Amino acid sequence: MKIALGADHGGYELKEKIKQHLAKKEGIEVIDFGTNSTESVDYPKYGHLVAKSVVDKEVDFGILVCTTGVGISIAANKINGIRAALCHNEYTARLSRLHNDANIIALGARVLGEDLGLACVETFINTEFEGGRHARRVGKIEQ
Ligand code: RB5
Fold first, then answer.
1. Whose CA is nearest to atom 4 of ligand 1?
2. Residues 6+ apart with CB under 8 A from 7
3. Is 72 helix (H, G, I), strand (E, B) or coil?
4. Which atom of ligand 1 is nearest to 8's Cα?
């Protein structure tokens, strides 16, 4: 599985924790689109880079982090074909895959903290889309 990571300065530290966590797992390759420090940057750039990587099928999923997860998810969702889900717990992470076939998870570093952030990522990447009636609804989003 290939995963694209992106964050602004507010999400940088959690992104690094996620990267370290994923590096310990077998069969996961990560592309890190930055940012690479806590120096202030503008989140739309990172939302866009990760979203492009997902729609270009360079990766299977994207993970985006900013302070709240709000701005970077809004930015990513401007790209056609992106379903970026702002998740606050394992329940929203799971349902975003089961029902929405989300292809990016967006996280708020100051909302979640490290443990919950990692738990959301684990749930997200390990949950399959349910299809069926949900495929019809996702299809209508794409239309
Ligand atoms: C940066 O200060 C902050 O606005 C950003 O990380 C994000 O939370 C925006 O939605």
1. 67
2. 14, 15, 34, 35, 46, 64, 65, 66, 72, 109
3. helix
4. 6
CA distance 9 to 129: 31
The angle that helices 12-23 and 114-125 make with each other, rounded to 10 degrees, is: 50
Low-confidence ranges of the chain (pLDDT < 50): none
Write down the pLDDT at residue 12.
98
pLDDT of residue 55: 98
Cα 13 from Cα 20, distance rounded (Å): 11
Residue 108, helix vs strand vs coil? strand
Q: Residue 83 C-alpha to ligand 1 middle, in angstroms?
A: 20
Rounded-to-integer distance, Cα 72 and Cα 10, Å: 11
Helix (H, G, I), strand (E, B) or coil at 53: helix
User: Cis peptide before 38, with omega less than 30 degrees from 0?
Assistant: no
What is the best residue among 13, 38, 39, 43 to mutate for testing ligand 1's pocket, by most ligand atoms within 8 Å of CB?
43
Look at the chain and count its residues: 143
pLDDT score recorded for residue 74: 98
Cβ-contact 47, 75 below 8 angstroms: yes
